[in-house]
Structures are given as structure tokens and as C-alpha cells.
Amino acid sequence: MMKRLLCLLLCLMLALPAALAETADTLPKLFARQLSGGNGTRGYIRVSASGVADWLNLLLPFTATEIQVRAIGQKQGTATGFVTDDDDWQVKLYVKNSEGQEAGTTWLYGNPGGMYVQSELLPDTLLEIPVTDVNLLYQLFRGEISDLLFAFDPLSLKAPGENGNASAYQAVANVLGIPEDTWTAEWLPVLEKYFTHLDLWLSGYGEPSIVAERDGALSMIASFSIPVEALKAEAKYLIGQMLYDNELQNLLIPLVTMEQRITYLNPQMVYFYEACIDAIQLSGNVVLSREMSALGEVVATTVELPLPPLPDEMQQTALQAAKLLFQLSDEELLEGMERLVVKQAGQERTIILSGSQRTVVLSTTAAEVENGEAINGTFLVAPAGDSQQRRVSAAFTCTNTHRVWQDEKYINHDTNEFSLAIHPAEEDASFQPIELSWTLDYRNNPNQQDSPAQVNLNVVAVLPDAELAVEAVLRITTQMTMENLPTDGAENIAELTDERKADLLSRFLLQMAETVSSLNGSIAEESTPEASTEAPEAATETPVATTETPAAPTEEVAVEPTTVPPVAE
After folding, report:
1. Nearest by Cα to 290 from 220, 366, 383
2. Cβ–Cβ < 8 Å for 535, 446
3. Which of 482, 451, 454 is nearest to 546 (CA)?
4. pLDDT score of 37
5. Which of 89, 372, 448, 521 can pair with 538 through a Cys bridge, CB separation 3.0 to 4.6 Å?
6. Backbone angles phi, psi at 279, to 5 degrees
7. Roughly what angle, to the nearest 10 degrees, separates helices 188-203 and 2-11?
8. At a CB cut-off of 8 Å and minimum separation 6, what does 491 contact?
9. Closest Cα to residue 321, out of 377, 426, 392, 418?
10. What are 342-394's pLDDT values in tens digits?
């Protein structure tokens, strides 16, 4: 395990830029493909909430009705003053009564450069949310889950001005996730010569072994302390060898496209990789430790690394999470961190961030469950020395499952279920328990040609002073037409005063409440939602157009002309 980990640490740069070819036609990919080329999606959102938290007042207007949704993403054109990016998207939100009357129409639209909001509920107002605040929403809309997971770029793979290099992280995940039998049968014989070289190289940095006792049995700990500069030199050597290794190239080629092969597996790129290694901002020593039993079995593996400066967004996100859960002070949680320790012993994993001000420890134990994995763990923030910052601890249980299945109506499903429970640990009663769960279910009818895909989302949150539930259903429809919605003259939300924000929010909620109550007094319970929660039956479906050239919109599904009020000059 240690040699495999070290070899990957040294040579993964060869695979980092490679985006793996996605050939499996999963239901999420089907949904995304059907949405392109002019197809739209429509459905609804239901919100329910209860409790005594003050912020529940903001949700009351939305809990009294069903919010209809229509969304589309495609290239719009080149009209001046309008969103023109290839990744344009528009979402129309509104409410309606049992007779189909629409009211409260609100548009959210934009691209990776920004998002705009315009609504009947805020006449003569156009708002812009800057790109730094909209990236995650955009990625969620586009289904770029790998971008979401690695949005903070801990390996600093983002190029200036780019949203991120999700393909690089996907390559790392796939290389590290190679099945053990495939690794043993195909990769190990090819990499054995590198392991032998690493063993000889490591021997020059070995420290005296230590005898320890674990669970009443003796074990031996072998450690290696390697200067970062020596590690960089070894990485350059190995990558230079690998770029000329035909056997290794044959293993990597199926994981990359032809363009990536020419770019990243080209021996002439060795100078590029050397420049990347030299640019890594690390100093000090890397410490590798391996604990072995009396029988020579590896009991635990530990890697200790010096830390480069952490990205600001990572620090801010960690701070916000810590403030939300533990009411920590405004002092940056990760400021001044100097060392990272990663330890694995069986199914137990520990990550330790240490610095002059505090130590942050995350410990987890994984266990397999049906169709997934369950993780139990603890999170600890311990102040250093005589710091006045209080000690914070929490325990959590997380379960994540994924299954692809077919129901009794022969409808295909691709379902992800996630649950998270956080509660105090070590008698720390500084916060109340929190529970969160969600289910994301993609589905379609395989027995019908061009059957439209559908996605159902259910979220439940149990918080100290409130309970919140959200149900959303979106289903691919036939062609929709994008509206020419303005972008000029928008107010940047980041530049608004607190008074202006409070005024806009107050007026929006008041208009929403009045709109809901005016629709014949209430929304009729028997109103039929635009997207069924059940997968469509073959006899009632309209095939989805999936070609690059959109078919002419039919009268039934064409988007109505916008009723959004004009923007003030």
C-alpha cells in the first residue's frame, strides 16, 4: 500500500490533466444530453417548513403554493446587451391557480459569467449576482458534480480565469479507484520496476525503526524523512521515465482522448511537467511511516506533508461551516496551518491539520452497506497553547448509497441517497443536533423511443429550531424558445447596501404573499402539476428531440412570451 501510494504521489501528474472518456450512457448523462440542443425541462417545487426559527418567515409565502418551473439551456445568439454565451440558461418560476392563470413570474438567467434576476414581484428592478457567487449554482444546474466536489481546488490546478479543472480531479479519482484485481493483474507488473527503484531511493532517507505495542502485540514502525527538493527531483526522474514507457502508455491511453494523449502523454512535454513540479510551493520534509506487525503485515500507513498557503475560498468556506455549526469566532479557521498528516489503518482514516494557533482533526471509519458506504467520524478543533479559543468537537454519521434499478412498471432508475447526522461529542453541548437527507432519482421509460428523462429531488433537514422539506420534479420536454432577457443596467447585489437588500427582500416577500392569496383565494389542491412524480407511460409521452438542430416548437409546449416588467433606465 505504501509503495502504491508513494508511486501515485510521484507520478500522478502524468495522469492529472487527462479527462477520462465517459462512454457509459447513464441516466444523469441522458438527462443532460436531452436538455441540450433546445430541449427544455419543466416541473415544480414544493416547500414545507415548521418550527420557531426566525428565518422561517422568509419561507412562508413559498409553502402556501406549488412553484412551477420551466428551464432551458442552449446558445442564444449574439444580440448586443443580452446573454450570448454558449452555456446560456434561463429558469422561469411562477405560481398558478386551478384555471392555469400565472402570476409572480420570476426569471433567473445567465451563464458562467454571472446570473441575473428579474421578477414581476420587484417591478423596474434587475439584479446581477457576480460570477464568484454563482459558480456553484451554475455547476449544479449543469450537473457538474465533480466540479462541485472539488470547487475549492486544493491541488491548485485552476488556471487563472478558469472555473476549475474537474477532469484532472476525475482522473485522480479513477486512478486511485482502479479495482484491486485490475491493479494486481495489469498495473502492478508494469510499475514493479518503479517500486524497486523507489525502495532503493527511499533507503537513503530511512530513520531508525521504532518498536511499538498495538492491542497487546508488538509492531515495528519504519519511517522515511525526505526533503521536498529531493522528492521533486525524484518526481521529475520518474515522470521522464514514464513518458517513454510504452507499457505504461498502453495502460493510460484508454483513459484519455486522442487530443489529451497527444498533449499530455507526449515525451516532449517533460519540460512542462518539470516546470509544474518546480512551481509547487512546499518546503521542509515529507515524512512517510509504515507500521508492520510481527508477521510483516502492514498495520498502518502515514504520510505527513508541509502545507502550501491554502486558497482563500477554502479558508472562507471552512470558516462559514464552523461558524454555522459551532459558533466559532471570526478568526480564520485554517489560518497558519503548516502540516498535513494523513493516516490509514484498516478502515480508519485520520486527517490532521496543525499550525501555530490550532489543530484540526478529522477521523473517520468506513463500513460497507448495501449499495454504498457508511462513515462514522469525529471532528475536533483544539486550540494551541494558552489560546482563549474554545475547544470544539462533533461526531457525525454519513451514509451514501447508489443503485441502478428497474421498478415494477419497468421504469429505469438511477438513484443516489445521502444522509448526514451531526451531534456533539465529548460532552460538548454547544450546538444542537442536525440531520440532513436527500434523494436524487433519475428515471425514464426504456421501452419508448426517445423517452424523456426525469429527475426527482427530495430534501429533508431537521435543524435545532426548524424542519424543512423540499420536493422538486423536473422532466425533459420538447423544444422551448429562449427569451431575450436584458443584462444591461443591472444592480450588482454585492454592491448593494444592507438597507437596499432588506428593502428588496421585504418587498419581494410581501408581493409573493399577496400574489399567492389573490389567486382565487388559494391554490386549488387538485391542480395538476406540470411534471408527474411518476415516470411517463409510453402511451402518453411526446418523444424528445435530441438532434443538434432544434425542431420547431409545438403549440403545446412553446414558452409563452415573457411578462417580466421593463427595466428602469
Report:
1. 220
2. no
3. 451
4. 57
5. 448
6. -80, -10
7. 90
8. 125, 126, 127, 128
9. 392
10. 888 888 889 898 887 788 888 999 888 898 889 999 988 888 776 666 677 88
Residue type, 450: D
DSSP string covering 43-110: EEEEEEEEES-GGGGGTHHHHTSEEEEEEEES-----TTB---TT-EEEEEEEE-TT--EEEEEEEEE
Written as nine digits, the cell of 423 is 451531534
pTM of the predicted model as reported, rounded to 2 decimal places: 0.66
Strand partners, 212: 219
In angstroms, rounded to a whole number, what is the distance separating the alpha carbons of residues 317 and 334? Answer: 10
* DSSP 8-state assignment for residue 14: G
Q: What is the dihedral of CA 18, 21, 24, 25, to 10 degrees?
A: 110
Cβ(267)–Cβ(291) below 8 Å: no
Q: How far apart are CA 426 and CA 382, in angstroms?
A: 12
Q: Tell me how far apart the alpha carbons of residues 104 and 95 are, in angstroms, rounded to a whole number.
A: 6
CB atoms within 10 A of CB 12: 17
Angle value at C-alpha 150, between 305 and 158, nearest 5 degrees:
80
- Can you point out the beta strands (E) in 175-294? 210-214, 217-227, 285-293
* Residue 490 to residue 116: CA distance in whole angstroms: 8
> How many angstroms separate the CA atoms of 495 and 504, rounded?
14
Tally the residues of the chain.
569
Q: Rounded distance, CA 295 to CA 217, Å?
A: 11
Confidence of residue 249 (pLDDT cuts 50, 70, 90): confident
CA Rg value for the chain: 27
Q: Do 219 and 211 touch, CB atoms closer than 8 A?
A: yes
Q: Are 89 and 532 spatial neighbours (Cβ–Cβ below 8 Å)?
A: no
Residue among 284, 172, 287, 274 at smallest CA distance from 232? 274
- How far apart are the C-alpha atoms of 547 and 565, rounded to whole Å? 34
Cell numbers of 436, please? 440532513
Nearest-angstrom CA–CA distance, 207 and 224: 6
C-alpha cell at 77: 445568439
Dihedral angle, C-alpha 123, 129, 134, 137, nearest 10 °: -10
How far CA 64 is from CA of 46, 47, 506, in Å, comes to: 9, 8, 17
Please, what is the end-to-end C-alpha distance for the chain in angstroms? Answer: 65
Ranges 258-267, 372-381, 404-413, 504-513: which has the least confidence: 258-267
- Residue type at position 428: D
Q: Element (H or E) spanning 474, and its range?
A: strand 466-479
Side chain identity at residue 184, one-letter code = T
Amino acid at 361: V
* Closest of 168, 176, 174, 240 to residue 17, by C-alpha: 168
Residue 557: closest CA among 474, 476, 479, 450: 479
- Residues 6 or more apart whose CB falls under 8 angstroms from that of 243 comprise 14, 265, 266, 267, 269, 270, 273
- Residue 400: closest CA among 431, 428, 371: 371
